[in-house]
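Q: Two folds, back to back.
A: First:
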Amino acid sequence: MLPFETPNLLLFALAFILGLTIDAFYDTPGLHATACVLLAFVRILFISITVQKEGFDNEPEPTLSLMGFRWFFTYAFVLTLFHHFFLFNLEVFRFSEIQYTLIRVVLSSIFTVFLMLISGLLFLKSRERK
């Protein structure tokens, strides 16, 4: 949800700090930090591809109310899939359990995107009332 104009260096630093914070609570040294930095990289690529093509240059941040449902859903789903796939594969680190890992990735991504859409709709409704 950071604005599009956030400098890449700051984005990577914030992602790394957030990942390390999660790692500190889950006792998984570097696992979440790596997944969050990958997420920051994929975010930069996704925004550079879609924002230039669809002409959203004047929008300040990637929210449901500003960008529309289709773009936000695609944005949230692609980034969540990349993050979860990388995180769960690093966690298991075995190809013998790839089927179980893929099921976890898909189900967790669907649930996460659902929660993101619900929260986006809640904030969308509160902005329209004001």
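A: Second:
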Amino acid sequence: MGDAPMDPAEYGRVIDVDGVAVLRFERRLPYAPHEVWRALVEPDATAAWAFRMELEPRPGGTVRFDAPDTPIVGDVIACDEPRVLEYAWGGHEGHWHVCFMLDADGDGTWLTFDHLAPHPHSPDFAAGWHWHLDRLGELLEGGTPAAVYSDEHFEELQRLYSRGEG
């Protein structure tokens, strides 16, 4: 991150999946799928790049987040370690639904992240997920993302997505 220019390939874009608008991010990560998976499911790891999350790793299991104002509880839709993690919850702006898909790619992993609801066209959601995925990358690199809910990078992403540049 830092002063390095942002890679346009890392921007989210809205695509059509079977007639449904989906905000999609695709990232090539130089880590094995099991390493990325741990960062997506272990509570201390999720706390570093997003919110502390605990889940029952099975379809129909429960997912819980320690959000800033109140705990959030949702449902695990799909859990196929280390390939697919999909869950949904009710929260700010209504029903949320996201899916992480991991594919082995040589010595790394191809991460596909889909935000299905709410409002996949929202520039704020695009900026937020972009920021969280950058923080996930920082954690995987061995860094410790700052314990903040916003920073200059997030604000820059908000400006870029609001102008339609992401």
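Q: And?
A: The longest helix spans residues 123-140.
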